[in-house]
Amino acid sequence: NAIQGYNTDVEYDSYDIETVVFHDVRNMYGNVHNISYIPSIVENKLNVEVHNNGRQNDFTKVAVVYYKEGKVIGYDYQFANVKEPGSTDTIKFGFPHAKDRTIIVPDDYKVYVNFSYKFTNINTMDDDETDSKFVEADGEDANY
């Protein structure tokens, strides 16, 4: 699950991350813009408290990218159990490990809500839901 760029014998200037955007999906609606989070570091782990401030959803995927000295040293993701409006879940991410299995403490990290959506029956959707777009990314440019 983790990018192990810190552990390779080859230096990379950058990493390419592929995203997928689905437009005009008529049987699901997005909820990314209604998901908030509070990260905190506790005992060599990153705890992320995730809140659903919006509507019911089926899946919410949260990811973290770890950095050391400006370079990516790790990546991980988990699914948050925030299916119901108003629900909260705390997920715990371990720090990356070196080849010798020692923990690498990052000097920075970024948390992303990769997606949050609900599958629906097209016949029961409201008019505003039929115009929804599903975005598998951090949701910043998403139109809902």
Describe the structure concisely for a colleague.
The protein has 144 residues and is mostly beta strands. It is built from 1 helix and 9 strands, in the order E-E-E-E-E-E-E-E-H-E.
Topology (SSEs and partners):
Layout: E1 20-22, E2 28-30, E3 35-42, E4 45-52, E5 59-68, E6 71-79, E7 88-94, E8 108-119, H1 127-130, E9 134-136
Which features would summarize this protein structure in a list?
144 residues; mainly beta; four-stranded antiparallel sheet; globular; three-stranded antiparallel sheet; disordered C terminus; disordered N terminus
* Fraction in helix: under 10%
Q: What structural category arises from helix and sheet content?
A: mainly beta
Low-confidence stretches: 1-5, 129-144
| β-strand amount | 35-45%
Strand order of the main beta sheet, please?
2-8-5-6
The span between the termini is: 30 Å
Biggest sheet, in brief? Answer: 4 strands, antiparallel
Question: Could you state the order of secondary-structure elements as H and E?
Answer: EEEEEEEEHE
**Number of H- or I-type helical stretches:** 1
Question: What gyration radius follows from the Cα positions, in whole Å?
Answer: 17 Å
Q: State mean pLDDT (0 to 100 scale).
A: 77
Work out the number of β strands: 9
Shape: globular
